[in-house]
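Thanks for the sequence, V.! I ran YdcF family protein right away. Repeating your input here for the record:
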Amino acid sequence: MLRNGVFLTAAVLFGLATVVSVLTAVVPGFSLLVAVVLLLVPLAVVVLGVALVANGLQMLRAEGRSVGNLLSLAAGVAVFVLPAVAIALLVSGSGEGFTLWDGTKIAVAVLMVFVCGYFALSLVAFALYSVVYGRTRHGIVPDTIVVLGSGLVHGEVPPLLQSRLDRALGVYRAERSAGRRPLLVPSGGQGDDEPRPEGTAMAEYLVANGADPDDVVPETASRNTRENLRFSRDVQTAAGRDGQMVVVTNNYHVLRAATLARRLDLPAQVVGARTAAYYVPSAFLREFAAVIVEHRWLNVVACTPFVLFTGFLLWESFQQR
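Predicted structure:
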């Protein structure tokens, strides 16, 4: 599924390059417009960095300090620091001709550019396909509606989790209006800092907001998204259901949840609930980081040519001593 994002991004970039090439050839002065746009790219990078830093500070004020909440701030700082370091490595010289140290600095700068470019394009592909998948309507008739859990606050459902439950209730009510009775499975175990399982609190919320208690069967043993999906399928099977699922999460989490569902061979469509705008950048970066870690060996292989090229540059520097 993630390959689709890569192919989609490649197609978009190729399409843009083709359109620009054609327009440059047939429209007088279009090349000047292209040059202006390219000159604005550094400004866009600065704006992006400032926006990420501002969002990171807002996250710290609103959500508290945690590794996850620091991601947008860290990304914003990296937007400024990494290019500055690469430029400094490229322009600084020893003043004694071209030395091995000069070659090493150039090689490191080139490696930074390649690796940062790789992950930047990966993030664009992930973001682009997340938007496309999130807006795709598959039109399945759900036998079971699974709601993925997230942390409780003092044992109660916080706004982030409430948005998932409300979206699930919307799907449930639409199915009931059509004469069907899907099973509702609120899925989430008990964290170390939680007084009760997430699934239990979620089930209470669903029933309190109109779901038939007979249609709600909580799953309370899972500790992560993969277990949410696996254990919810077990609940579905135990209830005598074997049809398709709708899995409800927040919009930033849709693509990774869908990828995991496909990997587990579940007949599921994943839909997203709205998330507070300030929360999305950091949460989305967290999802991207999780995907990178899950596919770490693929990313190592993809970055290996960059490392080999850096080694070649170092070898050339050594030969010129």
